[in-house]
Amino acid sequence: MYQGYLSLFDENSVDVLTQLVAKNTEQLFTFFNIDFLAKEITGIPYVMLLYKGQYMARMIEGCNAVSVIVLFVSFVVSFSGKLKATLFFIIGGSVFIYVLNIIRIGLLCMGLYWFPEQESLLHDVVFPLFIYGVVFVLWIVWVNKFSLYAK
């Protein structure tokens, strides 16, 4: 379904969910009076992320955490529990992952600003480990506390 959604956008545009995540990141950091800007330019398939007026990163579809949320939901459904608990855990966990991803994107830009020589480590190791580590902990909580398999 998500791939079908993405097919609605051409290769020179940014999908709505990625735009939303970029805008939410900007709003969160602006709320804390941090100089952060998400800038979209027509005809470019990414959102430019600026920290302290300096271009730090580009945000593409893979940065919006939708694939991580799909993975999270798939696992929870695979080891389902009672319907009410499953729905609450899916909704709560998805919102939690979404918010953490927004924080992750902003912190990554700040990290790139202060430690540009560590770009590969920050982008390819630290921050994916952060988001997937949280998802793994949520899975452990789900299986041990709410899943029917826990019994």
TrEMBL record:
<keyword id="KW-0378">Hydrolase</keyword>
<keyword id="KW-1003">Cell membrane</keyword>
<keyword id="KW-0645">Protease</keyword>
<dbReference type="InterPro" id="IPR026323">
    <property type="entry name" value="Exosortase-related_prot_XrtF"/>
</dbReference>
<keyword id="KW-0812">Transmembrane</keyword>
<feature type="transmembrane region" description="Helical">
    <location>
        <begin position="86"/>
        <end position="113"/>
    </location>
</feature>
<dbReference type="InterPro" id="IPR026392">
    <property type="entry name" value="Exo/Archaeosortase_dom"/>
</dbReference>
<feature type="transmembrane region" description="Helical">
    <location>
        <begin position="125"/>
        <end position="143"/>
    </location>
</feature>
<feature type="transmembrane region" description="Helical">
    <location>
        <begin position="55"/>
        <end position="79"/>
    </location>
</feature>
<keyword id="KW-1133">Transmembrane helix</keyword>
<keyword id="KW-0472">Membrane</keyword>
<protein>
    <submittedName>
        <fullName>Exosortase family protein XrtF</fullName>
    </submittedName>
</protein>
